[in-house]
Structures are given as C-alpha cells and as structure tokens.
Amino acid sequence: MIQTGSNKKRNQTADLLKGLAVIFMIQVHIMEQFATPDIYNSFIGKISLFLGGPPCAPVFMAVMGYFLASSDKPFSYYLKRGAVLFAGGILLNITRSANLLHYIFIGQSSVDPFFYIFGVDILLLAGLSLVIIGLLKIIFKKNYFFYFALAVLIAAASPYMPQVGTTICFSSYLNAFLWGNFEWSYFPLFPWCAYIILGVGFRLFCENAKFHSKYNASYSLVLSLPLLVAAGLTIKYAAGIAHNLGGADGYYHHGILFFGWMIMFMLGYIMLVHLIEEHAGRQAITRFIKWVGKNVTVIYIIQWIIIGNIATEIYQTQENAALVYWFLGVTAVTCVLAYAWEYFNFSFIKNKHKNL
After folding, report:
1. Is 1 within the bounds of a domain?
2. Which of 46, 199, 208, 311 holds its CA 20 to 30 A away from the CA of 29?
3. Average pLDDT rounded to a whole number, residues 277-293
4. Is the pLDDT of residue 98 over 50?
5. Cα–Cα distance measured from residue 287 to residue 345, given in angstroms and rounded to the nearest whole number
C-alpha cells in the first residue's frame, strides 16, 4: 500500500516481504473459503492458516509503518490517504461479495448483507491506521520509545476493551472497527494497529542507532537463527492461535503474549528474508515475488474479488487436489490482470506526460 519510490530506490527486502505476504494470503483465503471442514481442521489446514497468519498481516503492517516513519507529509495527507483506503476497503467488500449480495437481493440467501459490506478487513485497518500515525507523528515526533510503549499497551489492552451488547446495532459496527469481537471484525484497530506503530518505532530506532550502516547478510544470519529457533520451539502455541481465527483470544483478537511471540518471529523472519534477498535476489522466482510485492495493493484487491465471488458458489466444498489447482489458477489470473493494470496504467501516465 505504501510504495517506496522508483525501482532504483526501492527496498528490495520490503518488496520480497510484501510479495510473500500476498501469496500466502491467496492460499489462506482459498483454504478458508473453498476447503471442506475436514481439510480446514486437518494438519494441512493448520499449516495453511499459519502461513496465512504470522508472515502476512503482522509483517505487512509493520513494513507499512516502517516506511511511514520516514515520510514528512502533513497530517492532511494521512487524513486524505486514510479516507481513500477506508472507502476503497468498503468498495472491495462490496465487489468481492457481489455474487452473495445478488443472492440476498433476489431472496435466495437470508444472511445479513451488512456483515459483508462492513467487514473489517486489512484495507480498512490500513486506512484508519494512517490517520492514527499522522496524529502520532505530531505528538511523538521521532521518539521511538513512545511508539514502542504504545504498541505494547494496545496489544496488552486489546482483550480487555469493553464490548457492546449482543444486539446488532450501529454501535456494534463501530465497535467492530475498534476492537469488537464480532464475526465480521477481522482486523480491528486493537490489536492490529500495534504492528504499524511498532514498524514506525523500529524505523526510528534504526535511524537513531545508525543500524543501517552496519546491517548486512552476516548480521542477518547470526541474529535470525536464534530467533527462528526460539519461534520454532514455540510454534505449536502460535499455530493454535493462527488456526483459532475468531475466538476471544484467537488470531484476529489476540493479546500481548501472541504479540510478543510475533515480535520474535518477525525479527527472525525479516532478517531471513533479507538474507535471501542478499544471496538470491536476482533469481527468477525471487524477482517474481518482488514484482508481486511491488504491486501488492492491486493484487490483493483482484484476488479477493475473484475468491470472494467464487466462494459463494463452492463454499467449503473443495478437496486437496482441487485446492492446489484453485491456488495456481487464482494466482495466475490475478498476476495477469495485475500486469495488465500495471502496463495500461504506465502507458496512460507516459502518454499524459507526452501531451503535456
């Protein structure tokens, strides 16, 4: 969502992280929407949900915060950009649920359409978080300690925030955006905003410690191994959280313990990905994943529109082999459409500049 400038100045590790995140998201969306309950609850399902959990939204939001830290835009920019992302999130909810909304409209489905229109997905989280970061940059300036402290406070307070009553009303939908534990509240501000705030703080810490001048592949290897080993030894706990999506202390509404595990995992994982970029950044598969990361927003939107509308017809009916074919097919179609978007968008901008 937050681009890093021209290709020559792009952070290649960030693109690789975002590319891996959106590919993992495609497979987990297929698992959630298409797989039979038996497969979803199997060992394969747990692996799928883990890959679609810790390496995805938390890392993605932290990377977003990392780049926002260096922006010198005024608060009005964050407000406008946040509003655009929020409106785009609502529009994505409608388009990815268009098939289901059609069935509701003609009376063939009795589910509540507002659950799908106002589902708190990651674009809505990003939009609200942008506004918050704009405010925090005015209040905290460049003091990374305050960002770290606030991130921990948000994660710790998340399970204890007040919930509205069981009756669905306007306050329920508002509460869902903030911290409410509703079936349509996937990425509420509490605890998810903590990751973007953490990313801002980490960038400011690195700049203050002049860490970038010393950071290389050797540091990645030395520092990532113990973190990843520690994460591996406790992975059963994390996998259980990732598989329990909507519970009171599940993935969508986790607390400080899982947040602490995520910090350990992210540090090791990000350094490992940096190591891959250092040694295999020019390989074809790595370049492809980085291209996906460069176009993360459009790819995320396209894959959700495809998966969401198909899911209305085949919800939780697909077996193992079919899931593989769906993943390959959806990924291929999404990338082709994203490439077409990139090509025509570039051609439009180029022609516009010529006319000027």
Report:
1. no
2. 199
3. 95
4. yes
5. 21
Average pLDDT, integer, range 264-268: 92
Which amino acid, 66?
A: Y
Separation between Cα atoms, residue 28 and residue 54, nearest integer Å: 12
Spatial distance between the Cα atoms of 138 and 146, rounded to a whole number of angstroms: 12
Q: Is residue 2 part of a domain?
A: no
Distance, in Å, from the CA atom of 330 to the CA atom of 261, rounded to the nearest integer, reads: 32
Q: Which two tokens stand for residue 235?
A: 């992975």
Measured distance CA(125)–CA(115) in Å, rounded: 16
Query: Which of 15-24, 29-38, 272-281, 342-351 is predicted with the least confidence, judged by mean pLDDT?
Result: 342-351
Reduced to 3 states (helix: H, G, I; strand: E, B; else coil), residue 186 is coil
Domain that holds residue 214: 7-355
Task: Supply the DSSP symbol for 163.
Answer: P
Tokens of 269: 């994982």
**pTM for the whole structure:** 0.91
300/1 Cα distance (integer angstroms): 10
Residue 8 makes CB contacts below 8 A (sequence gap 6+) with none
CA 171/CA 164 separation, integer angstroms: 7
H/E run at residue 36:
none
| DSSP assignments along 230-271, one per residue | HHHHTHHHHHHHHH--SSTTSGGG--HHHHHHHHHHHHHHHH
- 351: in domain: yes
Burial class (CB in 10 A: 0-12, 13-18, 19+), 46: middle
Nearest to 30 by CA among 47, 17, 55, 48: 48
* Structure-token pair, residue 93: 């909810």
Picking from 172, 81, 88, the residue whose alpha carbon sits closest to that of residue 131 is: 81
Domain count of the fold of the chain? 1
